[in-house]
Amino acid sequence: MPIRHRRLTIKTGNQRSRRLASRWADGYTKGMKTAISIPDKIYQGAERLARRTKRSRSRLYGDALREYLARHAPDEVTEAMNRACAEVGESPDPFVSSAAHRILEQSEW
User: Which of 14, 51, 92, 97 has the fewest CB atoms within 10 Å, measured from its CB?
Assistant: First the structure.
């Protein structure tokens, strides 16, 4: 049985950004519409999730894409972790350092 795909049009940005975008030169917009094709099963699952979480379809797809991009941008994750560590600061704990050292010695690299 062939997999059917649904074509969705997704728009981003709010009404204000679309109004502002219309002031720019042709071809440049802040809010973007795009068409994608997805298998019916994924579409139906997304529809159920949107209803259950009381979110619009656009919001659901935007949130999903944002999460996917964050997971696949390791440099941004590393930078965020570095910022968090810098905010907390370093206070060497002898017990933690000793335990970490023992664990690293026993680990196979």
Answer: 92
Q: Which two tokens stand for residue 93?
A: 């704990």
User: Where do the structural domains in the chain lie, given as residue ranges?
Assistant: 5-90
List, for residues 47-79, the tens digit of each pLDDT value. Answer: 999 999 999 998 999 999 988 988 887 787 788
Alpha carbon dihedral 6, 60, 12, 14, in 10-degree steps, equals: 140
Cα separation, 26 vs 33, whole angstroms: 15
Query: For position 6, what pLDDT does the model report?
Result: 64
pTM listed for this prediction: 0.45
* Residue 25 or 45, more confident: 45
With a CB cutoff of 8 Å and minimum separation 6, the contacts of 40 are: 3, 4, 5, 6
Say which amino acid occupies 65. Answer: L
- Check: CB of residue 32 under 8 Å from CB of residue 12: yes
Strand-pairing partners, residue 54, are: none
